[in-house]
Amino acid sequence: MTPAGTVARPRQWQRFSLPERIMRSAFYLLVIIAVVWSLRTIEIIPEFLYDAPQQTGDLFARMWPIDWSWYPKVVHRALMETLHTATLGTILAVILAGLVSLMVARNITRSVVLNAVGRFILVATRSVHTMVWALFFVALFGPGALAGLLAIAVHSIGFTGKFLAEAIEEAKPGPIEALVAAGASPLAILIKGYWPQVKPAFLAIATFRWDINVRESAVLGLVGGGGLGMALDTALNNLYWDQVGLVLVVIFAVVIVTEIVTAWIRNRII
Amino acid sequence: MSALPHGQPPRVAFPPNWPARLGMVVLVLYVAYASTILDLTWNRFVVGLQQGGKFLARMFPPDFAHDKVSLLLIGMTESLQIAIVATVIGIFLSLPLGLAAARNLAPRPLAWTARALIAVFRSLHPIIVAILFVKAVGFGALAGILALIVASLGFLSKLVAESVEEMSMKPVEAVRATGSRLLSVITMSVLPQVIPRFIGFAAYQLDSNLRNSALVGIVGGGGIGATLFTAFQRFDYDFVLTIVLAIIAIVMVGEIVSGWMRRMFQ
Amino acid sequence: MSVTASASTQPPDAPKHATSLVINKLRKEYRAGQPVLHDVSLTIEGRGLTAIIGPSGTGKSTLIRCINRLVEPTSGEILFRGQDIVRLNRPELRAARRHMGMIFQEYNLVERLSVIENVLCGRLGYVPAWRAWLRWFPPSDIERAFQLLEAVGLADFATQRADQLSGGQRQRVGIARALMQEPQLVLADEPTSSLDPKTSVEIMELIASRAAERNIPAIVNMHNVELARRFADRIVGMAKGAIVFDGPPHTLKDSHLLEIYGGEGWLE
């Protein structure tokens, strides 16, 4: 090889530099090791797998025909409960998250300690899943919609609060300064200075979260959170597959309708 | 607000926003109505809060007894494995599905089929998918893996399809003009435009699968969820706290790993 | 085959002055009954630069894109290497495209890839997709890519990302990519329309000299009549989807330009 500076032929070309290639190879190796380890230790019973297609066929055969008569008796009430749980949960979450986001936003609260506390609340509420929160609240308040509602509300604080705080921090300082210069009270600054700027983001975040919460609240009943999940749990325990089919169809329909509604709201208002 | 100066001319600078006021009234009425429907009473809330004290007392300190820790490790390991396998398979499958759903590359019928499939995947909650798979392939990790693969496909494929539809078609046209086959066109002109964003999504999906892998166990899909559910049912609240702390810890480690992955590939 | 040294040597399989491309009654209708190209016929000799001039929207771009079927012709035939391009199926079309290098107005580089990766895209017709995925190109291709980058004056930029280059540099990469195919015909769709006047001259010089050196014909769409006069061996003037002038540059008179572009104030 000739020393650096002169070109040796035929020239080599590599997409990545040596350290990059080592890092990438190490990463790929790690992934392969992780996957192989997972697949080898995970218990997969082959006998179950062989009759899976048959079982699946059986599953759908038992769901059909769907037991529509169960809808007015139980499922309609459960559906309403789910929708109210999701909506009230979202409203509560937005109120709580609004308070926390004021604490987190550095242009509102100028205390590093309070910012950090707020941030911790956001991270902690978010990293525990809605279902796990529901288990907690069922233990506290007993099974029912109250537990589901609180689970929805508390888990949503993290998500909603994070985006709200970002929206508040992105607010333009110009109008705020004008109000400060005019001697407005802090509350007036908040309502006339920040709120108009944050409102579109606020509505967008709230509708987006409501969409997610409808999906979540539909299954919370499996752990005692009330609503459609409760009906599903009953049907599953009784092995009434035609009723399971009904609940699944209802959940599917609700999710689709919710998505259409939120898309409509997003286009109309925001 | 009383910030308006008095003695103004009859012109109204801020006409009252009637739709907004009406909206507020409707909202308050709705909250009252829905609360009665859901049978939410203050009394229940207060009783629950009183119980909360006892509850917290029973949770502390978290239980780190030897047998419990080994139970925890078995469950967590399985959850971790479920998340890893589901994420990797989900990533591999979501690229072709997402490309098939992109209307600027795939032929119409294929694109609409793929989009319909993705819509179904997205609208099914992982828990429900897990219930169906538990019935189809039996209790255990496999059902959990399959459920999380479906969830990953729903999320990732949609984002792949959106990124592909937003990308520039010019390089694609140029590479087509060199006489390359479809696969080369995809590797050299589509993927370079899409992959940087995709890696961000994939890293997020790893986080999300870690969180969800703790769930599928509740309905028999394997992993820590089953352990957690059992602990709740046995009022074993100090062990519950141990498990929840472990889940939070592993989710945080997952976020660090995914952040690392993002930096390396972007 | 070396690009820089063998300007005078001629590939044995490209006989001088043979016919390269025959277009026969080519018609294109984007909407039925509204043809953009009215049965255009054109024969391109085995070498030399043909400039197609004409106002915007007159079908120049459609014509050149029909030749490699980036735009599907409605009817007519295009004879190239003994085949009718219009009637080829997909695999045959891919094989035919490998012999036509194309240069685009907006360069159409893959911006997130490096310069040399963009040049190597010219070999994708020959390299299997999995090798392209691993960037495992044959060493001879990599060597050629370096030589072409030297030939277009970008040897030092090989590993830079394409989006860090200026417009003129990007078009040079586009030219190198087209030449990387070892084409028997170069198609250029408004290659200088996004560039400043000085760079435009340099780019046209590059296209003309590289095509001449390899003894292959080039078909270049352009707006700029002066550039066409300066670099073309033959000028084809189009108006409203039909050819209205065809001849060597010195025979192109103002009267022809009037016919091509219409109006007259602009000639002053």
What does this molecule look like?
The complex is a heterotrimer of chains A (about 270), B (about 270) and C (about 270). Chain A is an all-alpha fold and about 270 residues long. Chain A has two domains: about 35 residues; about 200 residues, Orthogonal Bundle (MetI-like fold). Chain A is built from eleven helices and no strands. In chain A, helix 5 crosses helix 7, helix 9 runs antiparallel to helix 11 and helix 10 packs antiparallel against helix 11. Chain A starts with 17 loop residues before the first helix and ends with a helix. In chain A, about 40% of the residues are buried. Chain B has about 270 residues and is mostly helical. Chain B has one domain: MetI-like fold, CATH 1.10.3720.10. Chain B contains ten helices and no strands. The radius of gyration of chain B is 26 Å and the shape is globular. Chain C is an alpha/beta fold. Chain C has two domains: about 160 residues, 3-Layer(aba) Sandwich (Rossmann fold); about 80 residues, no CATH class. Chain C is about 30% helix and about 25% strand. Chain C contains nine helices and ten strands. In chain C, helix 5 crosses helix 6 and helix 6 packs parallel to helix 7. The termini of chain C are far apart. The relative contact order of chain C is 0.18.
What are the salient characteristics of this protein?
heterotrimer; B: 266 residues; mainly alpha; MetI-like fold; 10 helices; 0% strand; C: 268 residues; alpha/beta; Rossmann fold; six-stranded mixed sheet; four-stranded antiparallel sheet; 9 helices; disordered N terminus
Provide a short characterization of the protein structure.
With 270 residues, chain A is mainly α.
| Shape, principal axes of CA atoms of chain C | globular
CATH architecture term of the largest domain in chain A: Orthogonal Bundle
CATH class of the largest domain in chain C: Alpha Beta
- Secondary-structure-derived class of chain C: alpha/beta
Radius of gyration of chain C: 18 Å
What is the count of DSSP helices of chain A, taking H or I runs of 4+ residues?
A: 11
Strand order across the largest sheet of chain C: 6-7-8-3-9-10
Radius of gyration of chain A: 27 Å
Q: Name the CATH superfamily assignment of the largest domain in chain C.
A: P-loop containing nucleotide triphosphate hydrolases
The greatest inter-chain interface is formed by: A-B, 63 and 62 residues
What's the total count of β strands of chain C? Answer: 10
Q: Fill in the CATH topology of the largest domain in chain A.
A: MetI-like fold
Report the major sheet of chain C. Answer: 6 strands, mixed
- H/E element order of chain C: EEEHEEHEHHHHEHEHEEH
The sequence of SSEs of chain A as H and E is HHHHHHHHHHH
Unreliable sequence segments of chain C = 1-12
CATH architecture of the largest domain in chain C: 3-Layer(aba) Sandwich
